[in-house]
Specification:
This protein has one domain. Helix content is about 60%, strand content about 0%. The chain is built from 21 helices and no strands. It starts with a helix and ends in a 5-residue tail after the last helix. The C terminus is likely disordered.
């Protein structure tokens, strides 16, 4: 692991050294405005960017305003990479198959090797959403970790185990409103105490912000939060949401916008229903990922760096065949419900399924590393709608998100979803009495 960490630090230094972290400068600007008592939503960075987040985000970033900018950028980048390492370690621990089924899929077996952690870290750093998050100094990875620690497995083995379940999700939603979709997911999935704790933390955080920065809070909730002009153009190629994709293709006429809203609402409902179904069928990771992708698709603005959820999603996709095989054949290698021979833990059908999932994961990884959304688009805010084939590249992340939801829907429809093994320690599954 030491070699991997050193390699990651070298990559990190190369990524952040050439240019200032423009988005982190916005966060730090908010913290400085709170220190100075300046009008939070009127100040701008040297690059002309305004502060667009809730006041509690500015309050939380006040410590970074108290130290030199260069030091603050290094500390922030290190925190981001540490969060990514913790997330990957939790996800890897969940996805490693039991020892007696490790031979079921090469990917599952590879996850158990000692080289897996550093290789996963370097592979994650190569994806465009993670690269952009670190280069710009964005908060996406830390928010993803916060949500994962509440809604995903493995929370009890982290330093955050003593916090009330739901508190981290509520704080993430307070900093950036889009994680509120996870609160709805937790409630609908039956984790109501966690959802209530998340909602309570969200409200408490904003109450603290109102006490410390009352003028900024009144300005934000009085209209700043609903002003899309402060965030950026919906049509900009970097906006990989359904709204952005449909606007780039069909324009933004009044009648077309109404259709856009209906489509977004339908996807939001379908995605949440799918996420809840997966959770209740013993696939909490898949349910969480379905909710995350749904949130990215239905948000009015989902910048390309918001798609950091692609990393755990692709890893889950690559290893899903291991668990599907485990379900079909059991832990002792006996034949499964289809009556086929299970002497080697697999059969032809499972082998083909494994190759399809691994192939899809590799294709998705190439897409998020190559990032074709930037290949042919101008880097200005004036993107005319067009219908030639190149528009597929411009909306590549959106298309990948839709394909993923369809894939998850097929998983949710399986009758042979695996029963969690003894390695799985998701508290909800334990409480529901699912045999492990």
């Amino acid at each position: 692991m030491t070699t991997g960490v050193v390699a990651a630090l070298v990559v990190l230094a190369v990524m952040i050294a050439p240019q200032p972290q423009t988005d982190f400068a916005v966060y730090r600007l908010g913290g400085q405005a709170v220190w100075d008592g300046s009008a939070l939503y009127q100040v701008r960075t040297a690059a002309g960017l305004p502060f667009t987040y809730p006041p509690i985000a500015a309050v939380l970033f006040t410590p970074f305003a108290a130290i030199p900018l260069g030091v603050a950028e290094v500390v922030w980048a290190a925190l981001t990479v540490a969060a990514l390492i913790l997330l990957l370690s939790r996800l890897r621990a969940w996805l490693i198959p039991p020892t007696d089924t490790a031979r079921a899929a090469g990917v599952g077996r590879a996850l158990g090797s000692r080289w897996a952690p550093p290789l996963l870290l370097v592979a994650a750093l190569a994806t465009e959403p993670v690269r952009s998050t670190i280069i710009f100094g964005q908060v996406n990875i830390l928010l993803m970790l916060a949500v994962w620690l509440d809604a995903g497995p493995g929370r009890r083995s982290t330093p955050f185990a003593r916090l009330p379940p739901g508190a981290l999700t509520g704080l993430a939603a307070a900093v950036k409103l889009t994680p509120l979709i996870f609160v709805a997911y937790l409630w609908l999935a039956g984790r109501r105490r966690v959802a209530i704790a998340a909602a309570g933390t969200f409200l408490a955080a904003h109450a603290v912000a109102f006490a410390l920065a009352p003028a900024a809070s009144r300005a934000y909730w009085g209209g700043v939060f609903a002003d899309p002009g402060r965030i950026g153009s919906v049509t900009y190629a970097g906006n990989q949401s359904l709204s952005g994709a449909m606007t780039r293709i069909w324009g933004d006429g009044a009648s077309v916008v109404q259709i856009h809203r209906l489509v977004v609402a339908a996807v939001a409902v379908a995605g949440l229903v799918l996420a809840v179904r997966l959770h209740r069928r013993g696939e909490p990771v898949a349910g969480l990922l379905a909710c995350a992708v749904t949130g990215l698709l239905v948000s009015p603005i989902s910048w390309s760096h918001h798609w950091v959820w692609a990393v755990p999603t692709l890893l889950w996709l690559a290893t899903h065949a291991t668990h599907a095989t485990h379900a079909t054949h059991g832990t002792d290698g006996t034949d499964g419900t289809d009556g086929t021979d299970g002497t080697d833990g697999t059969d032809g059908t499972d082998g083909r399924a494994s190759r399809r999932y691994v192939g899809a994961a590799l294709a998705g990884y190439v897409l998020f590393v190559a990032s074709p959304v930037w290949w042919i688009t101008p880097h200005d805010q004036n993107w005319p709608h067009r219908r030639d084939p190149t528009i597929l590249l411009t909306n590549a992340y959106v298309i990948a998100g839709v394909v993923l939801l369809v894939t998850l829907a097929r998983v949710a429809g399986r009758r042979d979803l695996y029963r969690p093994s003894r390695r799985m320690r998701h508290p909800d599954l334990v409480r529901r009495g699912v045999r492990g």
